[in-house]
Amino acid sequence: MEFKDNLPIYVQIKNLIKKKIASGELKKGEKLPSVREFSTKLKTNPNTVQRAYSELEREDLVFTQRGLGTFVSEDEKTILELKKNMASNIVKSFLHDMIAIGFKEGEILDLIKKNIKGE
Hints:
Blueprint: H1 9-23, H2 35-42, H3 46-58, E1 62-65, E2 69-72, H4 76-100, H5 105-117
Antiparallel strand pairs: 1-2
Helix pairs in contact: 1-3, 1-4, 2-3
């Protein structure tokens, strides 16, 4: 993973894990890599990965079992809420960008419909 300079690395790691949870790549109850293992893979400081894990735990997206590791939440409602929030942010960003380049609401909807139909 290549990190961007405009966002703290722990936030980028947190966002990566959130995306994997939302997409189902990480299943509910699945064990995350250990902090040491993940930090080695990402070539970053273990404290950075620990901070990302701690933030995810505060958001109830993961939980830690002492001596066993960190696991993805098993709460379907929490995971569904994550997906909805991520989708909403994507849509808001898309709409902002489309309006910024001069599209009107109707034009945006037409373009979306055409793309859904594969035109």
